[in-house]
Amino acid sequence: MRSNAMFKRKTLAAFLALPALFFLAGCEGSGSLVAGGGTGGTGISSGVITGFGSVIVNDVRFMVDDNTLIRLNDMLATETDLRVGMIAKIRGTFRADGITGTADSIEVESNVKGRISLFGPEPDSFSVLGQKNFVDNQTIFVGVSGLNDLGLDNVVRVFGFRDAFGDIRATSVELLVGPGGEEEVHGIVADKDVVPNTFRLGFLLVDYVTRSPEVAPGGIQDGDPVEVEGVFNVGTGMFEATEIEREDIEDVEFVPMESEKVEVEGFASDVTETAPGIFALAVDEYPVRTNAGTSYEGGTPADLRDNVKVEVEGVWLGGTLVAEEIEFE
């Protein structure tokens, strides 16, 4: 299977090709938006929600007011609908103190919602719709006290980070009671029409014809990031889609503009040393590069490798997050 991070770089390339971004782009090198340096400015923060009053992500408390647009799993929501452990993307303004800001828009989406089909084989793992999920002592469980209280065919909703293998490192697992509605899964399209009228999301084979789904404008191709809703057919072993949405089109507002501040949390992938002590990598869907001025907290450049969890702060220049600080978590 190809690297999930490589697909995510394609996602960013698609984002950056959209005309709206060119219209809004600022001037490179303006110096007004320096991560962690106390000058503030507009930008993006992506990471796990760790607290409220208002919404805390990456140790920044973003104030939420009546003008803040909040979407939770594609539905309009309020701050009270959000929970610790969910993964949020925030567009807003960072204040000069580096620890407070104002959220203009917040988007929160789970990675997968469906029935548990398998526990293991690795410790502390389970599968939902072909997506392998790992839990640890930081995973927040809702409706149950832990993994041992879940069983096969339980319907769960999982929030988390994708690692270098494309697996989900769960930050929140919620047991859903009742019918639960349609199942849904996020992923990168692969092997489209290798089996006619299907594509794969990880190990999940998606049938995009049988239920005549509503499909994103322009159709879908290998490498497209999508959200698929539908029903898993136990008899065929396929996920029958009822709706397919292109996430690169939906999430364009959360792509950084030139010279904006960016803070992103996740697992490093595709780590490559491009020069002694200088690295290129991906964290979540963001391509990252370091330089001689990058500072490190809790580790050294030698600790940068695939599947290490980090928080990166920096500035978006030329379609890449130029890291000013990397914190090992």
CATH architectural grouping of the largest domain = Beta Barrel
Number of strands: 25
CATH-assigned homologous superfamily of the largest domain: Nucleic acid-binding proteins
By secondary-structure content and strand pairing, the structural class works out as mainly beta
Number of domains: 4
Q: What name does CATH use for the topology of the largest domain?
A: OB fold (Dihydrolipoamide Acetyltransferase, E2P)
Q: Please give the count of helices.
A: 3
Mean pLDDT: 88
Give the proportion of residues in helices. Answer: under 10%
CA-to-CA gap between the ends?
A: 27 Å
What is the ordering of alpha helices and beta strands? HHEEEEEEEEEEEEEEEEEEEHEEEEEE
Global shape: globular
Strand content: over 45%
Short description:
The protein has about 325 residues and is mainly β.
Secondary structure elements and pairings:
Elements: H1 4-16, H2 19-24, E1 41-52, E2 55-57, E3 60-63, E4 69-72, E5 75-76, E6 87-94, E7 100-108, E8 112-119, E9 125-128, E10 131-134, E11 140-142, E12 155-162, E13 168-176, E14 183-188, E15 198-201, E16 204-207, E17 214-215, E18 225-233, E19 238-246, H3 247-250, E20 261-275, E21 278-283, E22 286-289, E23 295-297, E24 309-317, E25 320-328
Parallel strand pairs: 1-20, 3-7, 4-7, 10-13, 11-13, 16-19, 17-19, 22-25, 23-25
Antiparallel strand pairs: 1-2, 1-6, 2-3, 4-5, 6-7, 8-9, 8-12, 8-14, 9-10, 12-13, 14-18, 15-16, 18-19, 20-21, 20-24, 21-22, 24-25
